Amino acid sequence: MNYNTIDFAHNYKRRRFLISKPWILLSSFCAALLIGYTSFAIVDHNEEDINAIPFSSDTLLTGVQQATIASISSTHPTLDNFSPTTVAINKPSGQPVTVQPGDNLSLIFARLNLNANDLQEIMSLGTKTKPLLNLYPGQELRFYIANGRQVDKLVYQINQSDTLTVSRVDHGGYQALIAKKPVETRNAFASGVIRDSLFASAQKTGLDTKVILELAEIFAWDIDFSLDIQPNDEFNILYEEQWIGDKKFRSGNILAAEFINDGQKYQAIRYVDKDGTAGYYTPNGMSMRKAFLRSPVKFGRVSSHFNLARKHPILHRIRAHKGVDYAAARGTPIRAVGDAKIISLGKQNGYGNVIQLQHGELYTTLYAHMDRFAQRLRKGDKVKQGQIIGYVGSTGLATGPHLHYEFRINGVHKNPLTVALPRALPIAAADKPQFIARADELMKQLYNYRRTTLVLHAEEEAPQEKRKGA
Ligand SMILES: [Zn+2]
Fold it and tell me: Among 163, 250, 383, 432, which lies 20 to 30 A Cα-Cα from 326?
């Protein structure tokens, strides 16, 4: 079957064996990316280093193409419809207290005029009652109070899966119990085609914005999402969802993904190595990442290109511009473009505050006019790709705040915007057999899901064709 002829405008969702009614979801891929950027940064800031994302919000903004997303798993038959009944049956008693901004448990106890000794005893239980130290505004606590001031029971829903219950025991004192609802990880599938139409609401996509952002992040090393995206570009992804009972808790990692850009197919497989480091690789084990970020600033505009015959703006004479300038606000973070060792760090005429990095044997990069260096960095230190090494400024010969950035191979200056960047390290030889087996299995799953989607699509499409003919 030639999938190019298939119109993905109609979307099909399915969760496991439950086949739901087709659902049309039109939404802007890039708007989703933009909105998703913020939520991703907040939700997932401790999971992966978002500094390593090789594109800026500008990149996400400028694409105008639109994606149609069909998520097989995003139909959520939730308990919402039943909750009034549930509430009526299990109507909780006790006194509800909503956590206010700036609140803590001792303020709440004081407000309710509760016994301060009870608070002390509850907190002395240690680890189990520790979550009570991190209350968030809007959360609810439920107090069961006896004799006006005595706490008999305290219930606190820590998050969607965990509930803490502290109860007074007969012989005095309290006991604490954390009940955990089981979280189930399920695989889900999403597929779509990028349209050349207008922005639409990102909220309408069946796909979580976090997942869309992750998808873009995986392929951003090969595809420039502001320049390269074509109408009818296609993506297919297999990803994880975490469920509590019949309710989706959150989206998890992308396990396998495919992006077809202008007819060129890119595929990526997630693999966690023996050290627990997760990465994305092609099905034959090459890294999806490059050894270097294309740009050391995320939110910078190129203000001066690499030019071997440029008239210097301050010196007013021909002087080669052996790097690229990024205009950016003073204080904008500057990232190391690759894993490196600091070979110089200090003040130099013209360059101002400047850092030079050595990446392996062949490559060096240079970052000039910095306002200041990142704290505690010293010559000889090792830095990781994406690590902040300093901040944009205008020290040295500079007309305004900007980063002057140079890229050298074997000491020879190259244009940082066009130089061919080598791939990061492939799958380790020791991991390869295991990786290949996993990659095969995941790609098989991805294609099975995709075939099911196409079959569903064809079945739905047939009656429409007939109607058209009649
Ligand atoms: Zn410059």
Answer: 383
Kindly give the distance from the C-alpha atom of residue 61 to the centroid of ligand 1, in angstroms, as a whole number.
26
Euclidean distance between CA atoms 375 and 69, whole angstroms = 44
Rounded Cα–Cα distance for residues 291 and 407 (Å): 13
The CATH number fitting domain 80-180, selected from 3.90.1150.10, 3.10.450.350, 3.30.1330.10, 3.30.479.30: 3.10.450.350
Neighbours of 388 (CB within 10 A): 16
Instruction: Quick: pLDDT tens for 434-462.
Output: 999 999 999 999 999 988 877 776 776 66
DSSP state string for 339-389 = SEEEEEEEEETTTEEEEEEEETTTEEEEEEEEEEEPTT--TT-EE-TT-EE
Q: Do domains 3-78+190-281 and 80-180 have the same CATH topology?
A: yes
Q: Which tokens is 398 given?
A: 């500079």
Distance in angstroms (rounded) separating the CA atoms of residues 352 and 89? 71
Kindly give, in sequence order, each residue whose CB lies less than 8 Å from that of residue 211, ignoring residues fewer than 6 positions away.
190, 237, 239, 251, 254
> The whole model's pTM is what?
0.60
The domain segmentation of the chain, as residue ranges, is 3-78+190-281, 80-180, 301-414
pLDDT tens-digit readout, 245-279:
888 888 999 999 999 988 999 999 999 988 888 99
Task: Estimate to the nearest angstrom the gap between the alpha carbon of 130 and the chain centroid.
Answer: 29
| CA–CA dist 286, 282 (Å, integer) | 5
Ligand 1 center to residue 411 CA distance, Å? 17
Q: What whole-number distance in Å separates Cα of residue 181 and Cα of residue 160?
A: 8
- pLDDT of 73-121, one tens digit each? 333 333 333 333 333 344 457 899 999 999 999 999 999 999 999 999 9
Residue 209: phi and psi, rounded to 5, are -60, -30
Please tell me the distance between residue 391's alpha carbon and the centre of ligand 1 in angstroms: 15
Cα of 301 to ligand 1 centre, how many Å? 13
pLDDT digits (tens, 9 = 90+) for 181-216: 999 999 998 888 877 532 332 334 577 888 888 888
